[in-house]
Amino acid sequence: KVIESLPSGLFTTDLQGNTVIFNRAAEKITGIRREDVMGQKIETALPFLIFPFKDGRHEEELYTAQGERKTIGITLSVLFDITGAKTGFIGTFQDLTELKKLEADMKQKEKWAAIGELSANIAHEIRNPLASLRGSIEMLREDKIPVKHRRTLMDIALQEMGRLNHTITDFLTYSNPKPLDKQTVDVHALLNETLELLKNSEQNNADITIEKNFSGSLILEVDPSKIRQVFWNLGINAVEAISNGGRLSVSSREDLTHARILFTDTGSGINAHDLDKIFYPFFTTKEHGTGLGLAIAYRIVEEHTGRLSARSTPGINTTFEIILPKHHEREQRENPHY
Ligand code: ADP
Ligand code: MG
After folding, report:
1. 295 and which of 13, 48, 231, 281 could share a cystine (Cβ 3.0–4.6 Å)?
2. How many CB atoms sit inside 10 A of residue 134's CB?
3. pLDDT averaged over every residue in the chain
4. Which ligand is nearest to the CA of 297?
5. 267 CB under 6 A from ligand 1?
6. Residues 6+ positions from 183 with CB-CB distance below 8 Å
7. Crossing angle of helices 147-175/97-141, nearest 10°?
8. By C-alpha distance, which of 190, 292, 167 is closest to 237?
């Protein structure tokens, strides 16, 4: 009675795999009547089982006698009698079809929600500069505007168009990246170039110390222009976060398998609440930020099968860490002891 009332399919077989028990739920799930499987190989009802049966839990596809496709979760183990002797096999199984469908629906819904959020953010990023463009042009239409103001208004209009173009270019870099073009390069040389550019950048008008805590070379197989972009995006954020007298220090470490590059700054810091969101496209706390710098950096590091993470103690410092694998994946597979 207990076995018959179980909501799960249950069967047992002898040592040769011939069916001994096949409960009601098993009939219901497989669409096969007990009489047709008793004493027969259990594969008659569950064709995916291959004798000798594997222990443990797995998921399988099943076509029922009625031609319906089902996903089955099944757990198999060896059956012992009271003396401890092996007498056969026992399996329990469930119909996971509905569950799988729900799971797929959920995934689809999440995907649409993410796309919706992204679209709303893009629209917002486009509407802001459009509004100032419109304002400038409406004012320009009026004849009474003095020549000096006309220039300013036109400058604003041009600047906003530039901003729009910039947002869209960045967004395309994020959403439709070029394929990786890996080369063997000295990553320290790339870092040096970026830090030089940062020192001379217009964002760096404050009194900022840029410290290099690396020496020698760090040879990796990466796409140099993409990795340069990562360094630049992290560097510019640090510079933007630092007010007068702050410090950005860049260091690197390597072990047998990975290289780590750290950007640490003594700027404004990131509170714990924002830390979860900084890698999302369009997340920004800056008035003229696009919120794409870190999203792009994250994506590039991921393309290199590396990892990008951030930690911050506001008031003390903020660190972005890039981890890059040192050997080509293929090479790693060929030389697993690396
Ligand atoms: P943007 O720079 O356009 O705002 P990013 O994707 O580069 O976009 O950065 C997203 C947000 O992450 C920034 O607006 C800022 O709030 C935060 N952030 C990134 N880097 C730092 C940093 N080094 N210090 C403090 N906050 C940072
Ligand atoms: Mg940025």
Report:
1. 281
2. 13
3. 91
4. 1
5. yes
6. 221, 222, 223, 224
7. 160
8. 292
